[in-house]
Q: What sequence folds into this?
């Protein structure tokens, strides 16, 4: 979105002696003025240099690299905000026909809000060579200060625009979508509530705070998912699907759906609309008609055994399902029509497929099956087609049950057998994914239990947050500035039958466990 742009023209930079020759060297001497640090070839012949020097092209490259990293942070913040605002735009647009004039006024305000945030990002993309050189020479830490200033400016901007929109929304408080709009506005305000005491997200820790454990359920829950606003939670109880309202960490049952005749295994919720997908051996699509009514598609069947995992791509037009029948099926998705169309099958695994993950560019798919040496990399060949590339090699003889891409060229994999309790990091080196053993995390040792494949690894990029359920523990894991991973917090549930998820914004964790036979809600707080 934003690209670094130096204010000065590189060709116009010259030495203080005005020799009219190109600058070739920079003197990294704090005692010199800004212009005196720039040296041409003639300066070098006539100047005694006591301090360290560096090539001009090298310093240009170093400054540009620093600017790119800064803009990546800026862009993550801006893009996350714009995504939430665009969801708000979509909801308001659906209500537009009921009160066209008033809603048009709100849409105008929202567009101005987006433009305001984009302008702030654009301002961050310009920098001065001399100022950045001064910061580098004096080893000042202004980048962090400037980033915190930007966070506060966005917080103030969001507060300004939400203050304008709240009164206009109050007119429509009897509408079903009114609550969703207010929750989206609340998320935009919440995003920076703790930023003043957090400093940068990567420098803080996340801790779990218990909110509620009062809602009981005797039948086993295999899966939990949330809508993108965090106001709807969907869970399972054996063959039933339960729809819950979710507000401030509290759940309230709204509807029970009973179309499936066998225990529901997997759920995937759309991030773009109120639709979700459920699976047993067959797959069904669900679409919300109104607050209490959902319609169900016909059952789609291509697998010959129970489906163990499902993921949607970011466009939500491709669904990948892995099964006990050792295959991965790829489906064309149309959530507007509540419909799936089978496309093709990926068949290279020798055992049941239990975990799937796409990288951020979605040009690679990693799959994990039960058994040793059962991690496969698949690569995109066409718009909808993936092809087998290779089995990933690793150093231990154990099998694992969960795999997750964290970056385009990095995924994590967790062991599943009794004797090993580790999280392994695989990184792309020379075209092949290999273990980075320095980044391996030792989890709590437990040689009494196997791991369970349900409750997949969850990654929220905006909060630098990884949630891992391994055996009886739930771990909160984050990446340090040096690229190493650390455990921020952990929760022992005293059972390996734990099934849960977190809200899209990473604020709440909800799980059901066999010991308590209840839903537990925790808030994830930065401290």
A:
């Amino acid at each position: 979105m934003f690209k670094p742009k130096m204010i000065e023209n590189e060709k116009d930079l010259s030495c203080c002696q005005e020799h009219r020759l190109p600058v070739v060297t920079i003197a990294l001497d704090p005692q010199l003025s800004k212009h005196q640090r720039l040296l041409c070839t003639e300066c070098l012949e006539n100047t005694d240099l006591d301090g360290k020097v560096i090539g001009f092209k090298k310093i240009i490259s170093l400054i540009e690299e620093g600017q790119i990293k800064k803009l990546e942070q800026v862009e993550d913040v801006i893009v996350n905000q714009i995504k939430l605002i665009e969801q708000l735009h979509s909801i308001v647009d659906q209500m537009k026909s009921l009160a066209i004039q008033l809603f048009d006024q709100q849409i105008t305000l929202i567009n101005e809000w987006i433009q305001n945030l984009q302008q702030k990002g654009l301002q961050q993309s310009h920098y001065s060579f001399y100022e950045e050189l001064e910061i580098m020479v004096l080893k000042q830490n202004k980048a962090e200060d400037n980033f915190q200033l930007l966070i506060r400016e966005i917080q103030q901007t969001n507060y300004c625009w939400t203050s304008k929109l709240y009164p206009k929304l109050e007119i429509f408080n009897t509408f079903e979508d009114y609550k969703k709009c207010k929750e989206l506005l609340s998320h935009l305000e919440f995003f920076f509530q703790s930023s003043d005491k957090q400093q940068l997200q990567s420098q803080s820790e996340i801790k779990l705070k218990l909110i509620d454990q009062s809602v009981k359920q005797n039948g086993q829950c295999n899966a939990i998912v949330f809508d993108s606003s965090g106001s709807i939670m969907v869970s399972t109880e054996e063959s039933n699907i339960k729809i819950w309202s979710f507000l401030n960490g509290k759940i309230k049952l709204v509807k029970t759906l009973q179309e499936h005749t066998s225990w529901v295994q997997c759920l995937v919720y759309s991030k773009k609309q109120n639709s979700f997908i459920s699976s047993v051996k067959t797959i069904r699509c669900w679409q919300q008609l109104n607050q209490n009514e959902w319609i169900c598609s016909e059952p789609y069947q291509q697998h010959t055994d129970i489906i163990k995992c499902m993921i949607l791509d970011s466009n939500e037009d491709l669904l990948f399902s892995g099964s006990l029948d050792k295959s991965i099926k790829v489906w064309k998705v149309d959530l507007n029509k509540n419909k799936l169309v089978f496309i093709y099958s990926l068949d290279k695994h020798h055992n049941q497929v239990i975990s799937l993950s796409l990288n951020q560019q979605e040009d690679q798919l990693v799959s994990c099956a039960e058994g040793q040496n059962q991690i496969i990399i698949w690569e995109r060949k066409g718009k909808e087609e993936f092809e087998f590339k290779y089995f990933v090699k690793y150093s231990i003889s154990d099998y694992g049950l969960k795999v997750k891409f964290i970056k385009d060229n990095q995924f994590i994999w967790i062991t599943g057998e009794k004797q090993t309790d580790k999280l392994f990091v695989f990184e792309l080196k020379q075209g092949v994914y290999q273990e980075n053993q320095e980044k391996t995390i030792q989890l709590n040792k437990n040689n009494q239990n196997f791991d369970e494949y349900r409750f997949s690894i969850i990654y929220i990029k905006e909060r630098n947050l990884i949630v891992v359920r391994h055996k009886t523990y739930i771990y909160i894991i984050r990446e340090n500035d040096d690229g190493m991973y650390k455990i921020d917090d952990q929760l022992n549930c005293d059972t390996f039958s734990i099934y849960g998820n977190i809200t899209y914004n990473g604020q709440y964790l909800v799980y059901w466990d066999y010991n308590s036979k209840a839903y537990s809600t925790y808030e994830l707080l930065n401290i």
Q: What stands out?
A: The longest strand covers residues 206-216.
